[in-house]
Each structure stands twice: as C-alpha cells, then as structure tokens.
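Hi F.,

I've been meaning to write this up properly since the lab meeting, where we talked about keeping a consistent format for the predictions we share between groups. The idea is simple: the sequence comes first, exactly as it goes in, then the structure tokens exactly as they come out, then a line or two of notes. No screenshots and no reformatting. I'm using this chain as the first example so we have something concrete to point to.
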Amino acid sequence: MSDRLLTPDELETALRAIGAERYHNLHPFHRALHDGRLSKAQVQAWALNRYYYQARIPAKDATLLARLPTAELRREWRRRIEDHDGTEPGTGGVARWLRLTDGLGLDRDYVESLDGLLPGTRFAVDAYVHFVGERSILEAIASSLTELFSPNIISERVSGMLRNYSFITEETLAYFTPRLTQAPRDSDFALFYVKEHARTVERQQAVMDALRFKCGVLWSMLDALDYAYVAPGFVPPGAFAPRAG
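Output, unedited:
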C-alpha cells in the first residue's frame, strides 16, 4: 500500500495489477467452465445464478444515475441501463441472458422467479448494489472497473464453451458479442473519470479498495457455485438442484 500520491498513469497500473491478481478468470470454477470440465447441470447452475447479477446491474446503475450531478454524466451512465434493459421488450443484455438459460433447457419462469438462487449469490449481488448506492460517486464508478478485464474473459469463455460443450451454440452465447464493444467503451470512461478525480492519496486508496471489493463480489459468486455444485457438492435447501443423470 503506497502512502504517496500516484500519478494518473501509476494509478492505472495499480488498478490493472489488482485485476491481474484478483479477477475471477483465475477462479477454479471459471477454469473448469472454460475447459469443458463441468456437466450440463453445473453450467445450468452457473447461468441461473449469474442471471441475478445480470438482472440487478440495471438497478445498480439506476441507483448511481440518480446521484450523478451533471447531465453529461447522466447521459453517459444511462447508456449502461439501455445496454442491459434494452430499448424495447426482448432487447438488451438481460433478455439475451434469458436466451442463454433457455438454450440450456432452464424454464424461463423459474429463472426469473429467482427461486433457485444460491444464498451466496443473492448476498454478493445485493452487497454490490448497496455499495454503489451508499459509497461515494468516485468509489461507485471505480467498482465498475472490472470491465477493464472482461473482454479477455468473454473471449476465453465463448471460445472454450463452444469448443468443449455440445449443448452450447453461438446463438446460446449471443449475450457476449455486444459486450466485447460495450465493456471497453464503459471501462474507458470509468478509468478516465477515476484518473481525473482520484487526486489525493485517500481517494486513490478508496478507488483501489472499490475495485478489490468488486473483484471479491465476482469471486464469491463462483465460490458459492463451486461449493454447491462441485466440491463438496452441498446444495443449500431451496436452491437449484440438478436432476440425477
């Protein structure tokens, strides 16, 4: 932990180092997902639980949007909500994620009901929404910087799943294609904002802590999946329970 003020470029280097160490592409569950070592039921569990994260992202962004002080900032952040919620029914990232769960054979009403969520998933996602609503605008924006690292994990995930799972198709994974351009656009803005506004040691430490927190949210979601559906394989009462065979 540095006790001196970093230059903006040094701050960016420090933030990228956090991602290199803590981003969830390193998690054993993600490695298994990418490498084709999960069963269809385990992939279903991942998609069902990840749906809650996808569905709550627009609410998270709306919480921040309401706090932004200028029209310029609000216009920028509003695009994120449109990306996920779409501009009409059946469009946007949340709708595309439901096509993923459809393609995996999950009942859409069941997915949207959230009845099968792991408690760890709900806790982690809700903690992220609360963080964005309660912390400073600078910290809230900094927490989105995991998008700096998402294009690599998306490319890896799509290629690995298409290669290794016969039940996965390009249409099933249609959610990810727009994110290859949306995520860099969003992270470029957030990184510029953070570098411009984190001009004290305390603020720089706060943005780095915010990114560590967000990495922890994503990591803990995979921890919950790994514990429930891989080892030891104890599914909490009420959570999605794959059929035998």
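Notes:
Residues 8-229 form a domain with the Heme Oxygenase; Chain A fold (CATH 1.20.910.10).
The longest helix spans residues 201-229.

If this format works for you, I'll send the rest the same way.

G.
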